[in-house]
Amino acid sequence: ANRYGRGRIARYRPEIGPPAPAMRALEPDLRSAARFEQLHLVFQPKVRCADGAIVGAEGLLRWRHPEHGLIGPDQFIPLAEETLIIEQIGGFVLGAACKAARAIKNAGFDMTVAINVSARQFGQPAFIERFWRAMKQYDLEPERFEIEISELSMHPSRDDMAGALEALRAIGFRLILDDFGRGQTSLAFLAGLPFDGMTIDRSFVAGIGHSSTAERMIGGALKLADELGLETIAEGVETEAQFAFVRERRCAFAQGFLLSPPVELDDFLALVRRSPFL
Ligand code: C2E
Ligand code: CA
Ligand code: CA
Ligand code: CA
């Protein structure tokens, strides 16, 4: 049982679904998925390490395929990016995130909502305009949103990267560097970009207790974040030992199955209402 859900909430761990080569054959299905309402966002709580309070939600995409069942984003986002379907999907995500942020606010909570954005999307003026329109439609402010951009999608050769990030930040969005340590970018490159926070990848968190390399990596990342003035979020926290490790090293926030898996919006609101602080 996890700390908040006490095991009562169905997990969304899409480990099934078709293998990679078969994904390609699903391109036409993916193209129509958004239109036919097969896509939806689930929400994973972002928890403050100091007191266990839920301070935000991260929206994570799910595709409910009529024949193949639940398909996870790791399986279909790459195909979506290759085929430009990502633009349509990204539009859906913006709308769903705004809708969720409105529901959370209406329930009386002041929280951030994070979305994951592909490198392909975030530099485009159309993306910013679309986000802006969705926010205004739901009467929300950009400060409420966190845009997570994976280090894996960063390229030092893209000199428009910094400009695109600056533009989003100037509007008021919070920017989070996702999957830190998994990409190939240099520290100098990352340090020059206008991020507000970074996540500690779950592959490092998984090594706590038995991989000194992983533990050193986490220590180094937290130190770097501190020096750059970035907030830190440990991902994939599954055990009390992992939670204690990151908390002791003053990582500010944590996410993971120990705290709660990603859940439907209604279940997220229920978690927040009975959020038992540490
Ligand atoms: P991510 O942003 O690093 O998201 C965290 C992933 O770790 C999620 O997988 C989440 O379900 C999983 N997770 C959370 N806690 C734990 C834990 O304690 N243990 C383990 N083993 N896993 C945990 P998910 O939902 O399958 O998402 C995978 C990736 O797909 C995300 O990684 C993100 O990069 C991408 N993605 C998700 N939603 C979107 C989206 O709307 N747009 C785009 N472009 N990418 C998305
Ligand atoms: Ca993320
Ligand atoms: Ca991540
Ligand atoms: Ca995350």
TrEMBL record:
Q: Which residues of the full protein are shown?
A: 237 to 514 of 520
In terms of superkingdom, the source organism counts as Bacteria
The alphabetized UniProt keywords are: Coiled coil
User: Which positions fall inside the EAL domain?
Assistant: 23-276
Question: Is Acetylation tagged as a keyword?
Answer: no
Q: What is this protein called?
A: Diguanylate cyclase (GGDEF)-like protein
Note whether Coiled coil occurs among the keywords: yes
The organism's lineage? Bacteria, Pseudomonadati, Pseudomonadota, Alphaproteobacteria, Hyphomicrobiales
